Amino acid sequence: MQRYDIDSEKVGIKKVLIENEKGDYVFFSDVKEEIDILRMMLWMNHGHTGMYGDDGEMQCSQCMTEYGFFDWKRTPAKEIRERIYNKNIKEFLVK
Ligand SMILES: [Zn+2]
Predict the structure, then answer these.
(1) Is there a single domain that holds both residue 37 and residue 61?
(2) Does residue 79 surpass a pLDDT of 50?
(3) Shared domain check, 27 and 1
(4) From ligand 1's centre to the CA of 79, what distance in Å?
(5) pLDDT over 80 at 28, yes or no
(6) At which of 30, 45, 60 does a domain end?
(7) CB-proximal residues (5 Å) to ion ligand 1
């Protein structure tokens, strides 16, 4: 599993301080893992039926038709949001 420095500008994540089960405050170092889990849950439950991930990707043929190519696993969340918003806004304005 690939690990990232949580201070890295690449992933845009700041350190997160949490309280553990002993009541100690520790820096949470698994933010990337948490994001990966949440991305997978979103991909699996985003309302389409065209999902495939046979090579480790998290893609959807229905999303590609509607929003263009992107990967729920690797594409920045901001880009995914913009693609979906832009498509939906265009449909709303045309109607
Ligand atoms: Zn989709």
Answers:
(1) no
(2) yes
(3) yes
(4) 15
(5) no
(6) 45
(7) 48, 60, 62-63
